[in-house]
Amino acid sequence: MMIKRPAAAVLIILGTLNVFADDITLRNGDRVSGKIVEQTDDWVTVETEYAGKVRIGRAFIAKIAEKAAPSVPPAMVKAESSVKKEDPAPPPSKAKLFGGRFMGLADGWEGNANIGFSYTSGNSNITTLSTGLRAVKNGGSDKLTVYVRSHWHSNHGTGQLVTTQNAFWGGGRYDRNLKRRVFGFVSYDFERDRPKKLNFRSVVGGGLGHHLVKNDRTEVDVLAGAGWNRTWQAGPNTDTPEALFGAVLKHRFNERIRAQQTSTYYQNMTALSSYRFLFDASISADVTKRIGFFVTVGDRFNNKPAGTAKRNDFLFTTGMKWNFGKKK
């Protein structure tokens, strides 16, 4: 049976498409070959012969090599010139940390906000309010994380409102990848706790971090660096250089349940007998893509607090949370 020339040319081109597969090199050295069928700011979808469609996060991609399609014979161009084709959509721009409205401060954030509240009256007259916000913006080779939390606790059983806890703390950290598993960071943390007579603490720090584990489900980072602690408190204010060591664990059990833990140790470099330790751990479960609930455990330890304040503060909160930004 005779095959017309345009049809034969189409068959030849289709038969050679697999030779022109796109190559994706991952940060761990692995390579994925296939045809890129979709790209976004966060994901690249590749259609492979051996595993079907595979979606890869851009944060794990080191390089993309897209092979050019084979040249089309002139006769084929003439035969297809009568077919109207739509212009292909332009490829998505690479994510930029400081790109977008207001230098990127208004776009591209992902995270969650949470709130917990309890009120009792009668034999117990206690009111507790806790709030929190955590947001992350990923620029590919760099990342910005900000957080803030507050806790207010009062007892109104004596006819007077007695505040036993009125604290808030927060901060931010900028990470920049230096090598495949090594990154540099600059951080800022602040804290206020009125019952502990801590008017305000400001800590500026920086150093290096290492990705011990980084995959689609689990991330483990360790950090080491130095900071400057400026504290306004009852008694004399202090300016203290500190060494800092930290660890961050993130784990996704499934699409709905996630856990996160952070711990940071601050060593006073002018008085080695003085140190601080911060610990936070939370587990959250999404009911929908936007709404879920959480349980958080926190601990603030200072072995030499100001005045008569106790050395250790333990915090347990639970409540509802709201997810914002892009959601997988």
List the helices and strands and how they pair.
Blueprint: H1 5-15, E1 22-26, E2 31-39, E3 43-48, E4 52-57, E5 61-65, H2 74-80, E6 110-119, E7 126-138, E8 142-155, E9 162-177, E10 182-193, E11 198-214, E12 218-233, E13 238-252, E14 257-268, E15 275-286, E16 291-302, E17 312-324
Antiparallel strand pairs: 1-2, 1-5, 2-3, 3-4, 6-7, 6-17, 7-8, 8-9, 9-10, 10-11, 11-12, 12-13, 13-14, 14-15, 15-16, 16-17
- Across the major sheet, the strand order is 6-7-8-9-10-11-12-13-14-15-16-17
* CATH top-level class of the largest domain: Mainly Beta
Rounded mean pLDDT is: 81
Q: What distance separates the N and C termini?
A: 51 Å
**Number of helical regions:** 2
Spans of at least 5 consecutive residues with low confidence? 8-19, 76-87, 89-93
Name the helix and strand elements from N-terminus to C-terminus, one letter apiece.
HEEEEEHEEEEEEEEEEEE
Class from helix and strand fractions = mainly beta
| Integer-rounded radius of gyration | 27 Å
Count of domain modules = 2
Identify the overall geometry: globular
Percent in helix: under 10%
Provide a brief overview of the structure.
With 328 residues, this protein is mainly beta.
